[in-house]
Structures are given as structure tokens and as C-alpha cells.
Amino acid sequence: MMRSLNTQHSRIFRRFSSARCTARNTDAILSRQHIAVERARAYYADVWSQGRLLNLNTIMAEGHEQHDMVWQPNRVGLGRKNMKRGILAYRSAYPDLAFRVQDITYSEQTHSVFVAWTARGTNLGFIRDQPPTQEVAEFAGISHLIFDDNNQIKASFVYRQASVGEARYFLGDNHSGLGS
């Protein structure tokens, strides 16, 4: 009888232990997902919209790779420091730049986040060689943010619509009609 209880107890314990491990794994996945989603939101709300560049030290890996898949597909921006410079340039050209996250989805298999966003800002300064238009610019995009094991963004693939002024610049009509 005692042996039977021990055997039964062992079976129950194994099932309980297995369930606990599964629960721990689920908690770890949910925690990882939560961190990635919150960092993606902070990337747009705090860094891009508010200019809180120091937050990039937590959100983004030092060796981050930035891929603008529509307007500069053959150029890769390397490093967090370059990303900070790029954000400063955009925030200088569009001082009231504000991003709004429309939708966000997490992929457990690739530990990545897909973010659909819109942005709006008044072009009051130069960006690249493009003179200010003094116009409100609106654009939208989808970003695929891939996270590393430290839950920092290691790569960004951005598919975005350009503002009217930016489209004119990239499509070669940057000498006439700006601001009109």
C-alpha cells in the first residue's frame, strides 16, 4: 500500500512539476513578449516623438542595423550612435514630430515586433539637402523590429510612405515646387 501511494505521489508530482515548468516557460515567453512590445512602443512614443534619445541605450543594441526598405534599400545604418544622429536630424527638421502606433504584433518565433505607425510633423528645417517646406507632413509605415537575447532592438526593417516633400526629393523633383 505504501509503495502504491509513493508511486501515485511520484506520478502526481511529475505531472505537477511538468505543469509548473510549462507555466514558467509561458511566463518567460509572456515576459519577453511584454518587454519587446513595451520597448517598441517606447521607441516611437518616447524616442521619436519626445526626443528622449537616452532611452535608446536601453531599447536598442549598440550594433543596431537600420534598413529603410523603400527609400534607401541598399544602405544600412549601423550602430545606435548613427540612429541617434538620424533621429536628431529628423527632430530638427520636424520639431513637432509625433508618431502614433496604430497596431503592434509580436512574433515569438523570431522574437520580433511588427509595428504599424503614422507620423506627423511640420517641416521647419533642412533634412539631408532638402530645404524646409514649412508644411505639415504626414506619412505612415510598418516597421519590423528584431530583438536580441537582451531584449534590445538589434535590427529595424522600415517600410514607409514618404511625405510629399521627401517623395519629391527622392524622386528627383527637388528643385522646383517645394513649399507650393
**Which consecutive residue ranges, at least 5 long each, have pLDDT under 50?**
1-24, 174-180
State the order of secondary-structure elements, H for helix, E for strand.
Answer: HHEEHEEEEH
Please give the order of strands in the largest beta sheet: 2-1-6-5-4-3
**N/C terminus separation:** 92 Å
Can you give the helix content as a percent range?
A: 40-55%
Protein name: SnoaL-like domain-containing protein
Organism: Volvox reticuliferus
Pfam family, one: SnoaL
InterPro entries: Cyclase_SnoaL-like (IPR009959), NTF2-like_dom_sf (IPR032710)
What do you see in this structure?
This protein has 180 residues and is an alpha+beta fold. It is built from four helices and six strands. The chain has helices spanning 2-48, 56-59, 80-93, 164-170, and strands at residues 60-68, 72-78, 98-107, 112-122, 136-147, 153-160. Strands 2-1-6-5-4-3 form a six-stranded mixed beta sheet. Strand 1 and strand 2 form a beta hairpin. The termini are far apart. 21% of the residues are buried. Residues 1-24 and 174-180 have low confidence and may be disordered.
